[in-house]
Amino acid sequence: MTTVDMRYTGSALDRVEGLEKVTGRARYAFENFPADLVYAVPVQAAIARGEIRAVDVDAVLEHPGVIAAIWYGNAPRLVPSDNADLAVFQSRRVAYRGQYIAVVVAETYEEAKEAARLLRVEYAAEDHDVRLRADHPNMYRPEKVNPNYPTDTEHGDPDTALTVAPVLVDATYSTPAEHNNPMEPHATVAEWDGDALTLYDSTQGASGVRDTVAPLFGVPPANVRVISPHVGGGFGSKGGPSPYVIIAALAARHVGRPVKLAVTRQQMFAVTGYRTPTIQRVRLGANADGRLTAIVHDAFEQSSTITEFAEQTTTPTRIMYAAPHRRTTHRLVRLDVPTPSWMRAPGECPGMFALESAMDELAIACQIDPVELRIRNEPDADPESGLPFSSRNLVACLREGARRFGWADRDPAPGVRRRDRLLIGTGVAASTYPVYRRPSQATAQAHRDGRFTVRIAAADIGTGARTVLTQIAADTLRTSPDQVLVEIGDSALPAASLAGGSMGTASWGTAVVRACEALVEGLDRRDGDLPAAGMESSADTTEEIGAQRRLSRHAFGAQFAEVGVDTDTGETRVLRLLGVFAAGRIINPKTARSQFIGGMTMGLSMALFEESIMDLEFGDYLNRDLAQYHVAACADVRDIEALWVEEDDPHLNPMGTKGIGEIGIVGTAAAVANAVHHATGVRIRDLPIRLDKLMR
Amino acid sequence: MRVTFTVNGSQQTVDDVWEGESLLYVLRERCGLPGSKNACEQGECGSCTVYLDGSPVCACLVAAGQAEGRTVRTVEGLSDTGLDPVQEAFLDAGAVQCGFCTPGLIVQAHDLLERVPDPEDAEIREALAGNLCRCTGYEKILDAVRLAAARRTAK
Predict the structure, then answer these.
(1) Burial letters for A563-589: b for 16+ Cβ neighbours within 10 Å, e otherwise?
(2) How many whole angstroms separate alpha carbon A428 and alpha carbon A561?
(3) Which of A22, A27, A463 to mutate to test the interface with B (most CBs of B within 10 A)?
(4) How far is it, in rounded angstroms, from Cα A586 to Cα A657?
(5) Segment A197-228, tens digit of pLDDT
(6) Which residues contact A128 (CB under 8 A, 6 or more apart)?
(7) Considering CB atoms only, which of B36, B88, B97 is closest to A594?
(8) Is residue A20 flagged as an active site residue?
(9) Hey, are the CB atoms on A233 and B125 less than 8 Å from each other?
């Protein structure tokens, strides 16, 4: 199926928008200044559950510069939809602490901020329940898990198989709530012109925001334009419109002027999604030689009372290892907490922490090298669906990684290697991420001067999408990248799927290739003789993607970590991190390496630092800024390297690519935790690996 | 109040500045210089780093009034001609992803190389410790600073 010739595809082209970014000229959402604009500052609920009795609008209207204060009592009604989080100011109910319940609009940001601080809200508070526990009486089985996987799967007789297994691992792992924290806080500038709305928004998908926002205001999607040329990261949290977008549009309509609204870093911890905390029980039954006979993985998670978001935590366990008897389950409880959502590799990331930690425990129980254990349990086909893998090179990643890392001489004994005050250990874990592809549209236009313009409503949230689409288009058009302008980040362009699920390049690239192929064919027919207006071709990949063969398509990888644990303080440092990935063809080694390393670093950060702590008394996340929610800084990352093995998979898309945005974070935390066990003999099953857990 | 200061070589006068406004806000919202980014508003992430009288500061922690009569240099004014070697190195090394931390990191790295032309890795990590990046994993940023140092020394 691969049809793109590799002239520029595969070369390390510099990021095409790099110059704008290093000079400060790239314009992000909040940096748009329509005439006559005003500022909006939203107000958050101070209770975790209950009702809003009254809001004293009149009092804040007397403050300088204040134009309006909007809440349920005076807000315009939105058209009802099935997304309760977006129904802002449509009810007196408070579903979680920090929920947006009002907004103040003023001439300046400072005036709006001050008035929002002073706005008096009277509540009728009710008792709240915000604590996730596996034995919560309201745990239930959701209909499906994100985005559309079966909730539970079962093959064979896992219970009996576990009972008779010569070797058994039965362990419970937990991962905390984590917040995406892209560097650019969510922001939008909303401007109405009659019934037409323009949003300068920070989003991972302009087409999706348009299609979600328009019906809420009772206007056709064609009336809404979402402009988003540069996005300062998202990691899933900008996947769909969050409540702030609706508030900005609603406020702009209410006051009849353009409105700017930026979510503050502190507010982001309640209103822009987060990774659900998980409790996971993993049971592995094996023969003495390490061959698995049974795998059971049960996950317990939370969602808010108003929106069901059920993360697909155990789905990687369905494809990783061979075993005749197996079961995976997901159970969810609805608490008075903010609505969780996507965060980089939702499901795979926390799920693989548990599975890959358990595999390490099994390796120790069987006295088998953990690399060899994984190779021994490699399946011939997808172990649950029975489908062939389009390609699967986990073993190659493990072997290449082991060779590069110097794994061969590893002494498995824990807690015996000292270097000054440090205990040293090494660990390994596997990575995986599914290969998704969604329908998109694109156009390609030839100009008489030999240049081309390719248009698609894709998003570059820092991934390098604009750059790799330029390379893909140049190769298909048989020209050089400097002759191709790729326009993205605008819903007025041909509709495209969002930048999520590591499917951007696969989805958009297919549409770009098809549009460019059609253009080349048209040009060839005319023998290069172009009309004055140039020539344009378009493509829609809905049919092509709908007709693709059923196969099990996944990327794989292996991560190796070396840690040093300070014997006096319990502080863990990751001294070395190596990731080897098999992710189809790599379009741009420069942007790809950065994606892998960035993912691995976020995995390191997950292993050692990241944790949103629920305040049971007040019912929201306690650490609400970057001083208290720690993400890896420059000095936390030492020696880190990402490599890939050649993979030629003809069953993917015209470029032969698998996604690379998320796999880097999958398995990293397990590799680090396994290394910590090797260093100290202490098994940390509850992330993050804090020093107090090691000193106990 | 009125604030008058020099930004990137030209004198700016800004009226009706509220006493509590930050230098960052004035630069971004009033002076048409949104290159310096607002990512935390409390000095934790370094995205708003600018020079104030030659010293790198978090512009979100500086009250606009404190800039009165002083000189500010932002990422937009780092080079009079073309690109500064640090900007060039960030491009060449692939140290830019989403670009939101980039302006602050470039100013911070620029200051490091002004003070220490040939820094050790540990010095680079220390100098950049206050600038958070969520995309790159920092490795390419380190490469960029090493590259800029080598090019500046060679010149």
Answers:
(1) bbbebeebbbbbbbbbbbbbbbbbbbe
(2) 6
(3) A22
(4) 7
(5) 999 999 999 999 999 999 999 999 999 999 99
(6) A47, A48, A49, A97, A336, A619
(7) B97
(8) no
(9) no
CA dihedral of residues A375, A380, A386, A389 (deg, nearest 10): 90
Q: What is the pLDDT of residues A240-277, one digit of tens each?
A: 999 999 999 999 999 999 999 999 999 999 999 999 99
Q: Does A64 touch chain B (CB under 8 A)?
A: no
Q: Are A224 and A238 in contact (CB under 8 A)?
A: no
Residues of chain B with pLDDT under 50: none
Closest CA to A114 of A39, A55, A201: A39
Q: Is A291 exposed, middle or buried (0-12, 13-18, 19+ CB in 10 A)?
A: middle
Give the single-character DSSP code of A78.
Answer: P
The pLDDT value recorded for residue A3 is 63
A111, A178, A384, A662: the catalytic one is: A662
CA distances in angstroms from A490 to A154, A402, A451, A550, B48, listed in the order given: 44, 44, 21, 33, 27
DSSP secondary structure string for all residues of A525-550: HTTT---TT-EEEEEE-HHHHHT---
Element (H, E) at A506: helix A504-525
Q: What is the pLDDT averaged over residues A152-180?
A: 98
Residue A231 is nearest to which of B35, B83, B98, comparing CB atoms? B98
Going A355 to A361 to A366 to A371, the CA torsion angle's sign is: positive
Model pLDDT, residue A310: 98
- The vertex-B74 CA angle with B68 and B80, nearest 5°, equals 115
The arithmetic mean of pLDDT across residues A593-615, rounded, is 98
Residue B80 has what pLDDT? 83
Residue intervals in chain B for CATH 1.10.150.120: 85-154
* Distance set, CA A353 to CA A174, A363, A683 (Å): 9, 15, 13
The pLDDT tens digits for A439-460 are 999 999 999 999 999 999 999 9
- Say how far apart CA A401 and CA A427 lie, in whole Å: 12
| Whether the Cβ atoms of residue A553 and residue A434 lie closer than 8 Å to each other | yes
Instruction: Round the average pLDDT of chain A to a whole number and report it.
Output: 97
Phi–psi pair at A211, nearest 5 degrees: -70, -25
Cα–Cα distances in Å, from A78 out to A75, A307, A491? 9, 18, 22
Residues of B in contact with A109 (CB under 8 A): 25, 29
Give the pLDDT confidence score for residue A618 in this predicted structure: 96
CATH code, B3-75: 3.10.20.30
Task: State the Cα angle at A75 between A69 and A79, rounded to 5°.
Answer: 150
- Report the alpha-carbon distance of residue A199 to residue A185 in Å, rounded: 16
pLDDT digits (tens, 9 = 90+) for B83-120: 999 999 999 999 999 999 999 999 999 999 999 999 99
A199 strand-pairing partners: A190, A226
Residue A477 confidence class, pLDDT cut points 50, 70, 90: very high
Name all domains of chain A by residue range, CATH numbers in brackets: 18-28+438-546 (3.30.365.10), 32-127+183-233+238-271 (3.30.365.10), 144-178+274-435+551-695 (3.30.365.10)
Give the separation between CA A271 and CA A273, rounded to whole angstroms.
6
A340 DSSP assignment = P
Q: What is the pLDDT of residues A289-343, one digit of tens each?
A: 999 999 999 999 999 999 999 999 999 999 999 999 999 999 999 999 999 999 9
Q: Which CATH number is associated with domain B85-154?
A: 1.10.150.120
CATH 3.10.20.30 boundaries in chain B: 3-75
Strand, helix or coil for residue A102? strand
CA distance B125 to chain A (A): 5
Query: What angle do the packed helices A348-366 and A589-608 form, to 10 degrees?
Result: 70
- Within 13 Å, how many C-alpha atoms sit on residue A166's CB side? 9
